[in-house]
Design goal:
Length: about 150
């Protein structure tokens, strides 16, 4: 099993990095290969903190892109949808997740909630959606709904 370090993820994201093409190629080969690999949660947190922090990464990645990266880093998640709700004076996020058969929702919920809190400094309510109940979107912007 291979574990990816934060630096590989950051260099793959930063187009101007001298290591961008090497990091991108490594990610591509791991994602399309047969060898097992993983992104440990602490490294996913670090990546999101780096690329969304305006003093570290300029311009910073948008929160929606960071949420997408956080969710996509969890292989048990099949599809998701984000509802932005207005509660009193604050926006609140509800993340609906479809997970693959055999996955434990409580583990996925804890990982997503901890990732959002640690990496993005936001609280997210996470609920399980029945498999096949969420629409399949080609564009990520449609995953976000204001209700």
């Amino acid at each position: 099993m291979r574990a990816l370090d934060t630096n590989v993820l950051v260099h793959a994201e930063i187009l101007t990095s001298p290591f961008h093409s090497v990091a991108r190629d490594l990610l591509y080969h791991l994602a399309n290969g047969h060898a097992p690999w993983a992104i440990p949660w602490p490294y996913a947190y670090e990546f999101l903190r780096v690329v969304t922090h305006p003093r570290v990464y300029h311009p910073p990645m948008s929160k929606t892109a960071a949420i997408d990266d956080l969710v996509r880093a969890i292989p048990e998640i099949v599809e998701y949808e984000v509802e932005i709700r207005r509660l009193e004076q604050m926006d609140d996020l509800l993340l609906k997740l479809e997970i693959e058969a055999g996955a434990v929702f409580a583990d996925v919920e804890r990982a997503v909630a901890a990732g959002a809190r640690s990496a993005l400094n936001i609280r997210v309510d996470v609920v399980e959606a029945l498999r096949g109940s969420l629409p399949r979107y080609e564009l990520k912007a449609r995953r976000y709904k204001r209700v």
